[in-house]
Amino acid sequence: MPLNKRFEFQEHTADERVIAYGSTLEEAFENAALALFEVMTDTNTIDAVTHDSFQIEGFDEQALLYSWLEAFIVEFDVNLTLYSKFHVNITKKGERYQLIGQAWGETFQPMKHPSRSEVKAVTYHEMEIIKNKLVQLKFILDL
Predict the structure, then answer these.
(1) pLDDT for the residue numbered 2
(2) In angstroms, what CA-CA distances link 28 with 34, 71, 87, 127?
(3) What whole-number distance in Å separates Cα of residue 56 and Cα of residue 99?
(4) CA 75 vs CA 11, 31, 36, 52: distances in Å
(5) Phi and psi for 119 in degrees, rounded to 5?
(6) In sequence order, which residues have a C-beta less than 8 Å from that of residue 29 and are 6 or more positions away?
(7) Which residues contact 86 (CB under 8 A, 6 or more apart)?
(8) Which residues pair with 6 in a beta bridge?
(9) Residue 15's pLDDT is what?
(10) What is the H or E stretch that residue 50 is in?
(11) H helices, E strands: number in the chain
């Protein structure tokens, strides 16, 4: 990873452009989820006290990434759950991709978790998955 970065943010008008890195596609997906929550709060303040499982399918890897991140946005909107630790397994079954994911975190506590930005959605706009020696996931979060 570039300078051992898990992810980085790039300037974008009114939104947040993210590049998540990984030595594997799974690791890059884990780092993309961490980046999502880093936009929302300081992930170092999130304790891994609850565990949730996610099963996601998509027609391609971009659809899988979109649905993976969107699942966390919905989880926060509905249950105020923040996550800081992730584990992902991705397989291809026929023409579809499947992600089995685990996430650990806790319920948002205003006195513990500093509010940064509200993430409304992940977008397909400028979404890109690059696989070389390093996997890069590029996506934009709508704030």
Answers:
(1) 55
(2) 10, 17, 11, 14
(3) 5
(4) 26, 18, 12, 10
(5) -95, 120
(6) 20, 22, 64, 65, 68, 86, 88, 90, 99, 101, 137
(7) 29, 30, 33, 34, 101, 102, 103, 104
(8) none
(9) 85
(10) strand 50-58
(11) 2, 7
> What's the pLDDT score for residue 8?
65
Express each pLDDT in 12-32 by its tens digit: 666 899 999 999 999 999 999
Residue type, 138: K
Amino acid at 38: E
CA–CA distance, 83 with 46 (Å, rounded to integer): 7
The tokens 């980085």 sit on which residue?
8
Summarised one tens digit per residue, pLDDT across range 48-107 is: 999 999 999 999 999 999 999 999 999 999 999 999 999 999 999 899 999 999 999 999
- Tokens (6 digits) for 20: 């998540």
Cβ atoms of 142 and 121 within 8 Å: the answer is yes
